[in-house]
Records
---
Amino acid sequence: MKKALIASVSTAALLLPSITMAQDDTVKFGILVALEGAFAEGGADGVRNVELAIQQAGGMAGGKKIEFVVAPTDTTPDTTVRQARKLIEQDGVDIILGPLSGSEGIAMRDYAKTIPDNTVINGISGALETTWVDPAENFFRFNLDGAQWGAGLGSYVVNEKGWTKVATVAADYSFGYTNFLGFAVDFCRSGGEIVERFWVPLGSSDFGGVIASLPDDVDAIYLGVGGTDAINFLNQYSQAGAETNLIGGTIMADQTVLTSRGRAKDALIGTPTSGPLADDNPDEAWQSYVTAYQDAFPEDERFPSPSLFGVGYYVAALAAIQGLNEVDGDLSDGQVAFREALSTMPLDTPLGTVTLNENRQATGSVFINEVVDDGEGGLKNEFKARADNVNQTLGMSVEDFTAMGLPSRDNPDCAALRDGG
Amino acid sequence: MALAEPKTTSQTLWIERVPPIWWALMLFLLTMPAWANDFFLFQVMGWTFILGMIALSLMFLAGYGGMVSLIQMSVAAMAGYMVAIFGASGMGDISMGLPWWLNIPIAIIIAAIFGTLVGALAVRTEGIYTIMITLAIAAAFFYFTRQNYTIFNGYSGFNLVVPPSLFGVDWRQPMPFYYLTLGCAAICYAAVIYVSRAPFGLTLQGVRDNPRRMAALGFNVTAHRIAAYTFASVIAAIGGILLVWQNAQIAPGTAGIPAVIDILVIAVVGGITRPIGPFIGALIYVLLRTFSPDVLLAFGLSGERFKLLIGLGFLAIVFFSPDGVLGLWERWRTRRSRERDPLTGEQK
């Protein structure tokens, strides 16, 4: 009996829902973030960075006290929409900051249309379609999308490295296509030629077939894979000889790959990659942000420097706070004034100034890094160049960009871009 | 049941034999929109009924057929995908936009065929091997949908899949959707109860307890088991269609390995001995999934450890009662009846 009693009481205790409502003198943020699965660590960094931004603002925005609720997702769009609905309907939040990954972003774009009186500010999700295809009026994205992250790299390898003929190996899903498109558009317009494209399934471990059929007469191989896929590829690639130069996609040379064990990653030395940030960016705004981040949290509770995900959520929180300050916390009329402020204000971020276009998508800077030996047996990224004012259409006209079509296995058509550009 | 109840005479109407607690529950569920908020109706209860239906199909196979199948979530997702493909969605190139009275039956039939085929493979195995083979097919289904772009639209899946507006009602509004899921769940529940008492269900339970003897008696054991898969697939398919309507979208993650395992957890936590178990399990699961971060934050702990709370909750239930919440209830009942004198019925 006692056992049963304990069991029922403990179950009941777990089930107690807590219902809270936003007060007039507070503004409530809902942080929609992946805290399960492959991105859990990055997601936790996102939460930390929102806390940091709120703390730097003194806990106030537009004269109102900031409260926040965390809604954890597992990166599936189903869960994301559920959690978003909970934030709006149950927790009564005013503004959602999030989500983190691409397909979640597309789901949130559609969900945002059903909550016209609230505002969604993207965390770090990077699918092009989120703000390009049928965008939602109340969905704002202050980070660059996956295609923009690839921009600048193509012209860099053509002009600085003199590599004009490449074969590509990239992950066979939406981020792989999108990130590749950003590279390819820039590369082809600079006069480059893509000889052959290989698409590998996410999570594959055997790249033998692809490596064997890579052409010999190319200047470099573009690698658009990440995480353990990247490590597996590099292992097999170095066993097969590793003769050619490499060009990395945005997730190719991140910490998981650079800190992996074994010698295979050495094949990466000298590989240029592009992405939304550079750890050793000498910019003062970036340096002071990194210092603030390091001071705000004890060393064992944070990354050595802010992660890509963390920066995204930090910028989203900055945008929300600055927008609220501009309108003195006025969220009446379905937040119309707040949205107007978000759409028009230039936002100073650690990554430079960001402006939004008519789709409420950011125009900003892309950083070109190169993998170098850090002198202690490890590898690190070194800041080489930056491409400023990269817009959603990658410098093309809206008509040309629309005509090119959405990223896919066969898009973009390199020859057409080379002749047109 | 081993309870010493007086045999009901054949004169009493079936309606009189429904215990009062069922009337109370029915009244409670029917009047819920009067006092619960939209979030609770749509999200908590709607999702509970949907997951309950999918877990009910597993309960039917496991409880009455002795076959623990992990394919039920994939069957549900297959139905969801078919509604998205044959009906309307945001992916105009793939979706055919057939009217609801065509796409829903097609979806259920295709999902039932899929479930039957898997069943035909799986019934030739026993115990752990059934779990293995269905899990393998579920994993294959997940990877296939993620990699196939021509039919399943790969990683992104389908969005903007919404229920049809029938009789002037937008069925995705909280209250209509609540009644829709409640109605479907009640029908599925009643169907399982009915089938379990019909000759087919009794034979199936016979097959579960002693397949050899049933075969000797002249029953086709394999055919009965496969037919059980077909029946369970129809229930899972209905749940899957409602699930895609609730989320307004479907993607490979809907039937990913975690989701497949969740259905098993729901059925086990609720109890797989009776059809009400999966619904109880689903309610517990949904409440834990929805509110555990808030509970942690309320105690001043970091919300990102919410999975720990979910795990502890399930562990506590399985530890205290290996046959789920239903088992707790049943043991409480037996203990109460034990406290009475078996001869006189007087309280000791």
---
Amino acid sequence: MVKKITSWLSVGLISAAALSGCNTQKSETQDSAQQSEAEIVEVDPRGEILALSCASCHGTDGESVGIKPGFYGKPAAYLKTALIEFKNDERYSTVMGRHAKGYTDEEIDLIAEYFGGLNQQNSK
Amino acid sequence: MSQKFTRRGFNKLVIAGAAGSTLGVFGSAKPLFASQKHVVVIGGGFGGASTAKYIRKLDPSVSVTLVEPAMTFYTCPFSNWVMGGLKEMKDIGHTYDVLQSKYGIEVVHDEAVEIDATNHSVKLKGGNELKYDRLVVSPGIDFNYDAIEGYSEEVANTSMPHAYKAGPQTELLTKQLQEMADGDNVLICPPGNPFRCPPGPYERASLIAHYLKKHKPKSKVIILDAKEKFSKQGLFTKGWEKLYRGIIEWRAGSAGGKVMSVDPATMTVQTPLGPVKGGVVNVIPPQRAGKIAFNAGLTNETGWCPVNPITFESTIHPGIHVIGDSCIAGAMPKSGFAASSQGKVTAASIVRLLQGKVPASPSLVNTCYSLVGPGYGISVAAVYKLTSDGIVSIKGAGGLTPMDADDDQLSEEATYARGWYNNIAQDIWG
């Protein structure tokens, strides 16, 4: 199974390598330097992709415009505790418990850190 | 609809991906600024608008053009609420002003009519041609009108609306309901699987019943189904017993539900058990990938588009990502929520691919709220991950509103359904 997924990823990698032409060997340092010029802050890509899901109910970056609870501005530790409690049915919810059970504790860490970090970046 | 790739299939994919992208680099004209990457997105619905916004949010150096004919996009989610008299059309309409002004997306109100996958360009009905480094195709669904004898696009537009693309069709069905005589019946004819929004026809039946109960107490809703079972069936049936006893009748495909033909002149539907007449006849025909996906050769024999489950890149034409209802996304339903989730994963993948990096393994979600009555909501949720079988829902997570949910919980779910709509609309178009 792991091999199969690696293959899927390698499709992306080869595709990406071909797209960027001769510069496929660029080091991470160069990448980061270029990005800071463009004011892009490097985030954990896995944390990011996990966290993007949340906005569909809780608003972009967790800023809710409706009755659903927003969590923009909350620190990572708070978010982690809440998600773990939802996951373990220690906190009442209608649908959050069903969602939180879909993530490992490590993934919950990544999600919490992504939103925690996002808030820090924006408050600078 | 699950998809499996063989090892040989993978090798082909790898080669195709590399070759296609190489062509992209050496074969196509560059945008104005040689270093700036350009993404074209076809379709401004849940999938396309999400992708466009999130590409710009994740990497503002990438330029994005969104092609969408409509100035105002009306959402299918909550269009049943309009029919039930709980919302107005203006509540489900969204414009592209914020995507343009705040996110710097170029929005072109035109229709994509042709894709040149080799030269990385899209031809528009208005005559213009757009070049792209990566293309996202999110056209929703197209209807197989021919599948039902007597039915056609013209019939849908005049007498028997499908109302499965929100807009004028929603208004027509709503108007017909209002003008229908008390005592006439409403027929809803859902198609077989797969189709857009699996709980949609049953939420529609619920909210039309809500309207009838109030305004036409002698009328009822008859669902003539092509299927033997349907989404959230237990929960809907329980809600119908509670709120609409005797008002909603569901006939399974094998119990006379299957629609064989329709006659618009007499507003009659032919079933194996004889003709059924309706005051309002809502025929939802079988579906396939949106027209442009079909015309561009992005579909396979199923009528839908096979994609790489990490990047949603077409396994037929590299450099083109197909998302939303048109794509084959394993266990994910064809829903606006799923399309938006896929749009974000695709945006993140495209940004990383354009930066020469490996895309992250996808994480996808879906939540479908349905309203049985104004204070009676139910939901189904799922979290998806990638396995060797493609996109599967994670066991132990997700699932339905509990069958024994009390009135408070059902009322909360209805409240959260409204909250969900406000937030997802803001997350996509706002």
---
Amino acid sequence: MTKKQKNNLLRILAAAALLIVLRFIPSQRITRFVLYMIPYLIVGYDILLKALKGLKNRQPFDECFLMAFATIGAIVLGLTSTGDYVEAVAVMLFYQIGEWFQSYAVGKSRKNINELMDIRPDYANIEGEDGLEQVDPDDVEIGTIIVVQPGEKIPIDGRVIEGTSFLDTSALTGESVYRQVGPGDDVISGCINNSGLLRIETTREFGESTVSKILDLVENATSRKSNQENFISRFARVYTPAVVYSAIALAFLPPLFLMISGRDPLWSTWIYRALTFLVISCPCALVISIPLTFFAGIGGASNAGVLVKGSNYLEALSKTKTVMFDKTGTLTKGVFEVVSIHPEGIEERELLHYVAHAERYSNHPIAISLKKAYGEEHDDCQIDSSEEISGRGVKAVINNKTVLVGNEKLMRENGIALEPCTKVGTIVHAAIDGQYVGHIVIADVIKETTADAMKQLTEAGITDKVMLTGDKKEIAEHIAGEIGIKEVHSELLPADKVEIVEKKLTQKKNAADVIAFVGDGINDAPVLARADIGIAMGALGSDAAIEAADIVLMDDNPQSIAKAIRIARKSLRIVYENIYFAIGVKLLCLLFSAIGYANMWWAIFADVGVMVIAVLNAVRALNVKNV
Amino acid sequence: MKKTYKIDVDCANCANKMEVAAKNTPGVKDCVVNFMTLKMNVEFEEGADHKEVMKTVRENCKKVESDCEIFLK
């Protein structure tokens, strides 16, 4: 609680206590008025002052003015006819309770959200003359050696120069996945060093480091306002004056009409109704709860490893109907692996052995995956010569045997009859001393989570899933078939991808439907920018992706896409609940007060009660654990 | 040029009013007030003296919401 909040709470309690005491003190006319003015002024003096200042600055239609006007009106009615001041004091009292609650709730959620995003490192360790020194990360220059002890956060992006450890990335990704790092590995700030002592040479300044960028992004996210927020500020701007004028009309027109038609004008009744009208009208429930919901939703999402760059993107995400995917690195691991081995006349292991040895000196991605599949290839086998034949493969002499490893062309040119393969992927054939010995299939592997992610997306109401890839047609179609994507566009250049997205954008059935594109960064940047929302995946440490996308998934798990959509839906559901609830209750109460059914107490509920409920509802958006 | 200032204000509607007041101040190209983070992002016109402009912005905001504060570092 801040000092101001404490102060106001005391005033509220004092006024409430006085009000109760006064009920038991019999008093008449002017003494009664004076007595009731004490709690009224205690709890409301600042509102009255603000209302006056507002009048002076020609800004009459604010909440303070409404409250001051309504309560003073009620007091005047008390003086002239009813002799009842309780309502006036109560309205002011409850208004202040509402204000207090709002300020407390907002302060609390501000704190909660900041705690969720508590990835900001407080210090960096530098080796000084007498041991470790803690310094402000802002003061650390590029190229400085910092020391990160087990249990500490890495404060600045850099490269490990000494030590090995496991890093916990959960603060950034929302999931506890441990990364092993050793000398030469790049590490990013915000990760927690789990086991060993690391010496890191910084490669960036603190302000440019991942953790600063992420914090900056999330903190400024709510500055990009959603349609709902803009609607509410426009709404509040016309709404308050409209209500004030209606209240004036309500106070004067019916009595005048009654007077003209020769009946009792009932002035006090109509003025009372008009005052009730004013109390109900306060737009705070809406004005506070909608931005609060977005703020909480974005905060909750970032805790789950989904960074949303603005309220408007959260809104767009909730309306997503079509998701387009890049294949490599998004749906698949983006790394080639041996998926099957078909030997002819020799053992599987032996085939792999020869192939791996033939590729010993090659750094081609295919060679690397073959060596990886075999394991430790550096045994005492003799490789006499090894020659790369561009666009074909490798010819090597291993243990005095001539080994050919490569594609169909290589085999044909050497007059070797090969066995075609039905599997999809890159096929590596092999022959020993002119004899065909079989082939190995290498392919990009689908992520374990992809199939489930597609199912979750369908459940989340995504009607169209489209795969865009630069890869060959049969590979693309094979993978799409495995994971259940029906629409596939293959053999595309980056510019073709943009074209397809643009075509999709013009073919939308419904203008409000949103098309999202999911890619893994750098080469997808133009498409990320062109789609309604660009979602970058596996962005940990990749600045280009963070810059280009509207939504950033910190891990590379496609299930996060569905999760992000569900979080957005939940937040938007809460936003609409609050809009309909608050406007609905207020309109109903306004109607009832105009026809005389609602008294001041209703009005207090319509004002303060609705606001409290709306704020409590908004805070729900923060909880994304079981979304 | 863009600058961010810390602000203090009690209610979301008041923050909206500050935003409008700041936007209408000469020298200010655009302004976004973020009630949740209590920050004001101001984009200044080319060649405007941001210190002078912010003084006027502060005065104008005070006019629409007497309780607000902008911390001009």
---
Amino acid sequence: MKLGLDIGSTTIKCVVLDENNQLIYNTYERHYSQITEKIAELLNRVRREIDGVEHALVALSGSAGMGVAQDCGIDFVQEVYATRVAANTFIPGTDVVIELGGEDAKILFLTNGLEVRMNGTCAGGTGAFIDQMATLLDVPLEEMDGLARQYEKTYTIASRCGVFAKTDIQPLLNQGARKSDIAESIFNAVVSQTVAGLAQGREIEGQVVYLGGPLTFMSELRNCFDRTLGTKGICPDHSLYYVACGAALCAEQPIDFDTVIDAVKKYRGSGNFAFNQPLFISKGEYENFTKRHAKANVRQKDLKSYRGRAYIGMDAGSTTVKGVVLNADGEMLYSKYLPSKGNPVEIIKSFLEEVYAVNSDIDVASSAVTGYGEDIIKNAFDVDYGIVETIAHFTAAKYFMPDVEFIIDIGGQDIKCFKIHNGAIDNIFLNEACSSGCGSFLQTFANALGYDIESFAKLGLFAKRPVDLGSRCTVFMNSSVKQAQKDGATIEDISAGLSLSVVKNALYKVIRASSPDELGKKIVVQGGTFLNDAVLRAFEMEMGVEVVRPNIAGLMGAYGAALYAMKKSRGRGGSRIADAKTLRDFVHEIKVTNCGLCSNNCRLTINSFGSGRKYIAGNRCERPVTKKAPVTGMNIYEYKLRLLETYRPVEGLRGKLGIPMGLNMFELYPFWYRFFTELKFEVIHSPFSTRKLYHRGQQTIPSDTVCFPAKLMHGHVQSLIDDGVGTIFYPCLSYNFDEHLGDNHYNCPVVAYYPEVIRNNMKDVKKVNFIKEYFGIHRPKDFPKKAYERLSFYFPDLSLNEVRVAAKKAYEEQELYRAKVQSKGDEIIRKAEQEGKKIFVLAGRPYHIDPEINHGIDKLIAGFDVAIVSEDVISSRVDRFFTGVLNQWTYHSRLYAAAKYVTTREDMELVQLVSFGCGVDAITTDEVREILEKKNKIYTQIKIDEITNLGAVKIRIRSLLAAIDKD
Amino acid sequence: MAELKYDKKTGRLLFTKQMKREYTILMPNMAPIHFKMLKNVFIHYGFKAELLETTGPEIAQTGLKYVHNDTCYPALLVIGQFIHALQSGKYDVHKTALMITQTGGGCRASNYIFLLRKALKKAGFEFVPVISLSFGMEKNPGFSLTLPLIRRFVGGLVYGDQLMLLANQIKPYEINKGETMELVDRWSDRIDDMLVEGKGYTLEEIDETLHKLTKDFSKIPVNRVPKVKVGIVGEIYVKYSKMANNGLEEFLAEQDCEVCVPGLMGFASFKVDNRIEDYKIFGGNRLKFEFCKALLDYLTKLETLMVEAAKRFDFVPPHQYAHTKDLVKGVIGYGSKMGEGWLLTAEMIELADTGYENIVCTQPFGCLPNHINGKGAIRKIKEIRPNANIVTIDYDPGAPKVNQENRIKLMLAVGREELQKKLAAGEEKTDAS
């Protein structure tokens, strides 16, 4: 008899096998992090129920059981290894095992060279991720599967990590997309994440076996895998117990139940974990603290008896919806704070109905709405004003502290911070999609540990040793919490530790502050998360300043909106907002369609609310709304794309040569095009990126943390191969052209050497003549000879002279290209000057003109009636200067130069595009910011990935425009 | 107190001759055996140098506070350690300078020194001079890399590599626990004394010392039972530094493995060779090319001494650069030079060839060159060396140790299974000596 235990991140499994490896006992339960108690209980139970189990050989597996096993004298078997043993025993002939667990995703290749893959530290969260998404959709987990099966359309949801997907789903919910479609899209995201993140260039084929909770319970998830992999996998009996069975199969020694149970009960971990100062030492200290904060107070008045003018403010946030009604003195008549449950329209409707029910004669003078759902709510209910979140919060904060210098708002999903300078918002920090471990993050943890958020947070107030959990993303935090528990941290320590980590995340990840002096002395904190005293205290302790927290911290956006409405309404008549009667006839219909007005072909969600009111979401530009083509000619991003299209293939004696259109090719194409056209090749490039093209190469990406532009290259090369191009040219370039702006002229390691990755990971390149040689375009004199040496290996009939001539032409073509871009840029600037338009320098890299990479951000910004130029247009307008960093990359030198030039112009603003995972931008962003801020310019950074949510971008741009307007 | 002088062109704070007399230079400690020797070379030249031995979570925390959080982990740690030391009160901050290496390659590491200066400014230490340990990237009146200094330096690398190599091959099998590390300490003290006195760096001296040293180690009684053999490669700081890799070597020792960590000499040769390859690939200055070739020849000579000494006493010799380089042909081009470049890939292939087929490839989270040469090359390595059993581990301040160890354990489980198979087939023999 053999006994196997499997202790996963959320569940514990126990099996007993008989002599013939037949399963005679099995149990599967959640452990709610009470791991040791559960093990002891299970062992006792098995002993009672199975005769003779006391002589069984025992082994333990599972990520959460490692420490316990070691200390309590049970053999430990690594869980993937256990799975493999079980699969080989129970289903001989299995080629690939795909196993999803609470937090792990694994792929095992059993045949043709054993390989095992587990999700990396970044891409965690699969079962837990579906859990979270179900919460977000407000659907019981059990119903997700049924819901997904009714899907009609799928949306693209970022497949990198849970937090990313969340930012994609939230706007979909806010825009009224169907839950069934979203459920299916979530499953697809899980599949895509597993396949892209784990397959790493190896194809999943043959007999596929699905294991683990999510794949056992959700048939539609299995279908999604089947469809993507083009196979029919099986989900065997006892698919939940493979790890436990594997452990049992590997078991080699019996245990003494009494000793082990005793040891497990006594197991306390090492007791060594990093911890911080307690939040409060004494009750007295806590009382003083609450007394001090009670001063920031908005008075409550009765709505029912109120007869004067009333002002409504609403904040349709990402996870919650807030609404307030104020009297003319700014006092609170009525307020509501509700989870948006994926449908803010419904919640706002009931909010308004409630208001009208309490006081049917209310005289609404004006109304305003802010937040993610601003547009849809404004349209649905004819709200008078929509304002950008940052302005709403600033307006509210000023009410409590007129000379406020810094505002920090931690909400359910976002962190927003802004510095106030001379009465205007001067610097905005929003959390990037990666670090959104905010309010909902605390909530998720509280729930996972079996508490509601309030009582969970309170636990931490008097914790003796708050765990130091660092300031990273949720996925890391999960594992850190597990580790701390193992090391003996109490639930109190963890609660306090999580509150501290929320604060540290905001300070060091989002704001990147190192001392309170940087933020100023006058700080207002707000957002629902700060209503939690532990978080508030942690913030004050970490920064060493006393701050103001209004008693309506959770309602500040709505409150600010109401104050704004009040200010705007002066001297005007009543509000247009939907009245009780309109609400009775209110309808909300949703239709999903594709736009088709331009090549982007955005997927549109059309919301109709009856009486002709309509709201379209999912669009990147205003075209489907206004039916007018956007003004062109003032956007260099568009121009560059069009310019690239002019390099048309010319038939040549030497046949076709394909160039993948990605990374540096967005700028160097003219060079190579001319070079090879002169050498009598028919030069073609892969099409501009699309989502579909990306998916074509996705399976072959070896490193899931590399930047998205690099990942796209796999799709480009694949598409050339699929189109039958026999020769593909994708050179390695350590160096770029020397533009004499910096100390050196490197390409970044990824741009320089990505051809090596393509060659080593895409097996189809073996079918073609793939040229990834090293070239030195930075040395025009040496180039022809060296290029000839490299190329004659592939094309023996080439002559050095031919290459010389072609090279000369190539350099000329590149120069011509640059001149064209330059003169167009100058023209845009001149025109903007004449028309008095603002000029936005959308600074990034050449490949940021790819619409699949920039997600149409250029068009979105152009929609605000500003001119757009890129960094290379103005980088030549300044002389070389010394930077605070080693200025050694060609593309990055342009950024510094552009920033410097922008500081000399009143009418220019710089917005930096940063691709997620770009290591070099960890350096450039700080430097660009420093250059701008030295001259009191606002720095705006937009981080982009596969993510397609433009909501946050809109907020930034609108806030920036609002800030400039104040000057 | 020394007057603060600034470079006229760039405004950089200089390390002056007066500072050389008065200041203590703090150095990060990447590889303990090696860096102690390097420190002693500086002491011989009249610098007051001190290695930072601090560890603990405060260091990463300090780093996170003063450096952009998306910067690579080594930068966070090294800079965090410096600032932490300056804030500790242990040093007179007005008589302290910092030293950091700068390779000038196309990876982010060349910018560490600037990030350090930014961090110093943020922390209020802008008066603390930072010395770049590089080939002429930044010049300081009080510090220069002279040829004799470099020779002594390289001597330190050779000794460090050999000690590390021998210790790794003996320690897991030693009969008297602790004996190997005692001998390492004794020898590193002896070598330290030599270096402080300015001796022990000529080819003859090195040859003699290596012989004696290797002989001493060969006398340690061992019991050679078959163990899982693991090679460690990766981004250079994370590969060597215990603080960065969460005590990887100790963990592997606990798991009853023999470890092989390719030495620093390979990396030094690689960096010199990069300039030779650059010349070959792109063209350039003939003189520099010849100089680098001479330098590489010198390194190769030293390497040969190490290999011969190891072979003489039946140890697995260290990798020979030229051979390692040859192995990577057709896998990654020699132009891929940023970070550890093609060397990292080559080391994995060589480890697989020399019995260390279980490999941990370490890198800071988001390491740019490792996308190419580490994670990006593994597919190909597995294709040409099917025996290679590689796990890649990302390190950063938030990556929990338990997950890393779990992944390594998986790699080891496969390694153990292969070892059992080999034993059953009689390939691996037990020979007690």
